[in-house]
Amino acid sequence: MRHQPPAKLQLRILKDVQRDVAGRQERIQQVIRSIPPGKVASYGQVAAAAGYPLYHRLVVRILRNSGDALPWHRVLGAGGVIKLKGTAAYEQRLRLELEGVRFQGKRVDLTAHQHHFRIWELDEVPLP
Question: How far apart are CA 52 and CA 57, in angstroms?
Answer without folding.
Answer: 11
